User: What shape does this take?
Amino acid sequence: MSTSIFEADSALLRFLSKVADVMVLNLVFVLTSLPIVTIGASLTALNYTALKIVDRECESVLDCYRRSFRQNLRQATALFGIVVGLAVVLVAWFLIADGLAIASIIRFALYIVLFLVTFQAVIGALFVFPYLAKFEGSTREVLGNARKMSLRHLFASLAMLLTTGLPVVITIFYPHLVGYGLLWLAFGFAAIAVVNAFLFSAIFAKYVPTAPEGVA
Assistant: This one.
């Protein structure tokens, strides 16, 4: 006898259950990010829960999220401050470079250098909070290992940069395609985290025995 699509273990209900998990995860992420200063902890908990969902180790989205949020609140907040500070510095460098009275060829070379530095900083930042969600380590170790992993797994970094950046670009230039932000509130942040979690899970699996001691 064929399995009914409405049975508890049917593919349809399993899919709908995952969709519900993603929507709940997105709602919790948005709510816990409202104080702004907690965004770092929220990003860590978002990635922790997304990894658990992908690895089929999450029985309760709320429990997984709450556990990671509380455990990493202080360190994640410090890391978020560092990331924001670095972003401010990079923007300042571009503004300074744009205002310098120098030859065009020198300005072009300076922009190339700034672009490469910014690119490394961005892909490294993509790994910071997922790394903290998976491994333990000092703030220096988290930043260093996140940077090394992002460069070592460059194709994965580019893929995650695309899946993270493309929705942002679409939202800015074609806001009607995302319901003027409604899709972000419904499931956008969590959906991106879950998609990226498939890549992070595969990458982190290679470092599970050694990553807490540092990536050589």
